[in-house]
Design goal:
81 residues, alpha+beta, three-stranded antiparallel sheet, two-stranded antiparallel ribbon, 1 helix, elongated
Amino acid sequence: MVLKVDEDPQAAVTDLHCPTCMRPMTMKASGYCSICFRPMYGGFDNNAWPINKGRCCHWCNDTRVLPARRQVAINEVVRNK
């Protein structure tokens, strides 16, 4: 499976095939990640707070947003002691 990415976030990815029937499938990007600016597919994006106020991809959520949220929570606990 090869993903082709155009500059347009609504551009179709055409080299995807159904694993059952092998018919070509079309998948459109739902927008761009507000952190890494890569296209996001599938419509399942994440809240990018506290990095910024936009939406982010799963990779940025796991590697940047969640660690930043943990640090915010730790700082709140330490400050309230």
